[in-house]
Write a structure and sequence with these properties.
32% helix; 218 residues; 8 strands; alpha/beta; 5 helices; five-stranded mixed β-sheet; three-stranded parallel β-sheet
Length: 218
């Protein structure tokens, strides 16, 4: 069945479609009066709907909101070209609930305020379209590009998120792989900064940032 995203503020017994929504139904899908489809609001609720007349939908009874098994955030550094578009699409299909584009220190992409706003609008549309195609009734939130320090501030505000899924989650059987290498701790810094390259540099930044923002690791 065809599906259409309709924002919550637009939901009513009779939905007046905007030009883009009407064009999608009438031109792209070639649906006319009487055609059946499903409407979802991006928050988990969905309705059976029928095209009453051009540009107007009549909604049926509301179905209960759907909740995913986990509340997953994805933080992704800005990338060139359409790579980030693909990341948002696949993250939506896999069930992410929030996507946070990051302006990392070593990112090749640099966006001014205007370009960042336009990129955010584009990514939100991609998330809506991906949710429509994969059958989700909720759409992940897509934040405006932010810094790693901003992300650390979000984690400080929600410390329980760092422990989500750890308590009571099944663990794989322990396998004896011999003596473990000692873990090295990053030298405390007044300012959190990613140093080095690759995964090692990321770990150094994460540990320093955790201390700076008092984010406790479970």
């Amino acid at each position: 069945m065809h599906r259409l995203f309709v924002p919550p503020e637009q939901i009513a017994e009779l939905v007046r479609l905007d030009p883009a929504q009407s064009r999608h139904l009438e031109v792209v899908l070639r649906l006319g009066p009487g055609a059946q489809l499903e409407v979802f609001d991006g928050r988990g609720a969905h309705w059976p709907a029928r095209i009453e007349s051009p540009g107007v939908l009549r909604l049926g009874p509301r179905a209960d909101p759907e909740r995913g098994a986990a509340d997953v955030w994805l933080a992704q550094a800005l990338a060139r070209g359409e790579k980030l578009d693909l990341v948002v699409q696949k993250a939506t299909e896999l069930g992410a609930t929030r996507i946070l584009p990051l302006a990392a220190e070593r990112s090749a992409v640099r966006l001014d305020e205007d370009r960042a706003e336009r990129r955010t609008v584009r990514l939100r549309r991609i998330a809506q379209e991906a949710a429509r195609q994969c059958g989700r009734s909720d759409v992940p939130a897509v934040d405006a590009p932010q810094t790693l320090a901003d992300l650390a501030g979000l984690l400080r505000a929600e410390p329980e998120r760092l422990r989500a899924g750890r308590a009571g989650s099944p663990r794989a059987p322990h396998r004896d792989r011999g003596p473990r290498r000692p873990r090295h701790r990053a030298t405390p810094r007044r300012r959190a900064r990613m140093t080095g390259h690759g995964f090692v540099g990321w770990l150094q930044w994460a540990r320093a940032c955790s201390r700076q923002y008092s984010v406790s690791r479970p």
